[in-house]
């Protein structure tokens, strides 16, 4: 019994006297005398039972004693963990109950707050009723205005139909008047005298534009133009045409210098912007691919923004390159046209030599500005002279061609006059 009075862990810590007292305290009774009496009575009864052979101690007794000791040891070892587990379960149940109580309290408080917000429900209902009345009134006014607008639109459509009808009537009247005037003009144009005057004035205007006089055309085509036409030309028109010949050398391709500057600059700007945008956009796209090759996107949205950014970079790069090339091209063409105009003003004549000289001077300016090497300078001179030969040759060809057509037209007109005159004066013209 003494070996089970305390745990093995406590044997090294407790004093033997304390162990004895603990054994005594474990006995029933309230005092030392009663506990001693219990021990004496127990020992006496055990001795009596054994001496009288009422109970024989055998192997079963040992098994009972061993089982009792084992059960006591198991009880002492399992008592504390079981108590802790029971306490933990009770604490968990208590916590659940406490939490449920707190949740119930919070729900009750929330419900109280919700209900307390409805204490002004009567005033709110009255306000909403007033607002609903005002809304109904506004809707009625809006419906009335809508009806007025519908009536006004209907009236406007009717008035517009009348206006269109009157406009169609006026259009028909104008068309009839125009047809009447056209018929009268056609009847007047059938007069040979008026036709002759119109043709003569047109020829004078063409000669003044093309820098050619009646005498030069007549000397160039003597076998076509008759001497009698000179006497039939209006004197005032001939004098006015000679007065405009002094400045005709400024006209190239039927354009004045200012008009040529504007036309050439516009065309060169468009050409440079068109042919400079594509390589610039391509270069910008390749540069963007090279700069972002190490950080490619991994998602669909990333690829979308990647290509969107690439397109933006290509557009910006193409616009920059196109504007740069357009500026250079327009400046070179403007320089060529300016030099050509200056040479026309100095020589008082516009021909292919002025265009070639303008191309040579423009190539020299470009070579000096960009400090081109000898081979590139040679190519620049070839391009400038070729451009001058092409433009000047085309202008001279068109001018000669128009002069030839003019002389042919005048010759045809004079031949018609000759036939009319020959019918009445055959013997005088061919003796």
TrEMBL record:
Keywords: CF(0), Coiled coil, Hydrogen ion transport, Ion transport, Membrane, Mitochondrion, Mitochondrion inner membrane, Transport
Function: Subunit b, of the mitochondrial membrane ATP synthase complex (F(1)F(0) ATP synthase or Complex V) that produces ATP from ADP in the presence of a proton gradient across the membrane which is generated by electron transport complexes of the respiratory chain. ATP synthase complex consist of a soluble F(1) head domain - the catalytic core - and a membrane F(1) domain - the membrane proton channel. These two domains are linked by a central stalk rotating inside the F(1) region and a stationary peripheral stalk.
Lineage per the UniProt record: Eukaryota, Fungi, Fungi incertae sedis, Mucoromycota, Glomeromycotina
Protein name per its UniProtKB record: ATP synthase subunit 4
Coiled-coil region: 83-110
Single Gene Ontology MF annotation: proton-transporting ATP synthase activity, rotational mechanism
Ranges that cross the membrane: none
Keyword Transmembrane in record: no
Protein location: Mitochondrion; Mitochondrion inner membrane
Family: Belongs to the eukaryotic ATPase B chain family.
Source organism, top-level taxon: Eukaryota
Subunit structure: F-type ATPases have 2 components, CF(1) - the catalytic core - and CF(0) - the membrane proton channel. In yeast, the dimeric form of ATP synthase consists of 17 polypeptides: alpha, beta, gamma, delta, epsilon, 4 (B), 5 (OSCP), 6 (A), 8, 9 (C), d, E (Tim11), f, g, h, i/j and k.
Gene Ontology CC annotations of this record: mitochondrial inner membrane; proton-transporting ATP synthase complex
Gene3D superfamilies on file: 1.20.5.2210
InterPro entries named among the record's database cross-references: ATP_synth_Bsub_B/MI25, ATP_synth_F0_suB
């Amino acid at each position: 019994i003494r070996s089970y009075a305390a745990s093995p862990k406590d044997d090294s810590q407790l004093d033997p006297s304390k162990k004895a007292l603990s054994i005594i305290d474990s006995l029933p009774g309230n005092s030392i005398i009663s506990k001693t009496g219990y021990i004496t009575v127990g020992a006496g009864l055990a001795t009596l039972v054994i001496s009288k052979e009422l109970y024989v101690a055998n192997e079963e007794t040992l098994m009972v004693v061993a089982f009792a000791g084992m059960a006591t040891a198991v009880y002492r070892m399992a008592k504390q963990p079981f108590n802790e587990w029971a306490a933990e379960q009770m604490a968990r149940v208590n916590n659940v109950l406490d939490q449920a109580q707190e949740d119930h309290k919070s729900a009750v408080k929330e419900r109280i707050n919700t209900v307390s917000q409805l204490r002004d429900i009567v005033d709110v209902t009255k306000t909403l009723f007033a607002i609903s009345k005002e809304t109904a009134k506004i809707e009625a006014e809006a419906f009335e205005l809508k009806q007025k607008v519908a009536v006004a639109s209907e009236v406007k459509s009717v008035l517009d139909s009348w206006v269109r009808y009157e406009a169609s009537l006026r259009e028909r009247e104008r068309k009839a008047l125009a047809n009447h005037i056209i018929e009268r003009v056609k009847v007047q144009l059938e007069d040979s005298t008026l036709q002759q005057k119109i043709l003569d004035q047109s020829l004078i205007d063409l000669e003044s534009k093309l820098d050619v006089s009646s005498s030069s055309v007549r000397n160039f085509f003597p076998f076509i133009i008759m001497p009698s036409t000179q006497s039939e030309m209006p004197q005032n028109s001939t004098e006015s045409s000679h007065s405009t010949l002094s400045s005709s050398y400024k006209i190239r391709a039927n354009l004045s210098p200012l008009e040529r500057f504007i036309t050439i600059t516009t065309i060169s700007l468009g050409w440079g912007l068109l042919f400079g945008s594509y390589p610039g956009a391509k270069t910008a796209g390749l540069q963007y691919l090279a700069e972002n090759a190490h950080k490619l996107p991994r998602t669909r949205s990333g690829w979308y923004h990647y290509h969107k950014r690439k397109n933006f970079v290509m557009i910006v790069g193409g616009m920059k390159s196109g504007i740069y090339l357009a500026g250079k091209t327009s400046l070179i063409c403007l320089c060529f046209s300016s030099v050509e105009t200056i040479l026309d003003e100095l020589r008082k004549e516009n021909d292919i030599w002025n265009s070639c000289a303008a191309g040579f001077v423009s190539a020299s300016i470009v070579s000096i500005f960009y400090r081109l090497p000898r081979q590139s300078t040679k190519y620049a001179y070839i391009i400038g002279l070729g451009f001058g030969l092409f433009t000047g040759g085309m202008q001279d060809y068109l001018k000669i061609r128009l002069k030839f057509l003019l002389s042919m037209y005048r010759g045809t007109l004079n031949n018609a006059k000759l036939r009319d005159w020959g019918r009445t004066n055959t013997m005088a013209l061919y003796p």
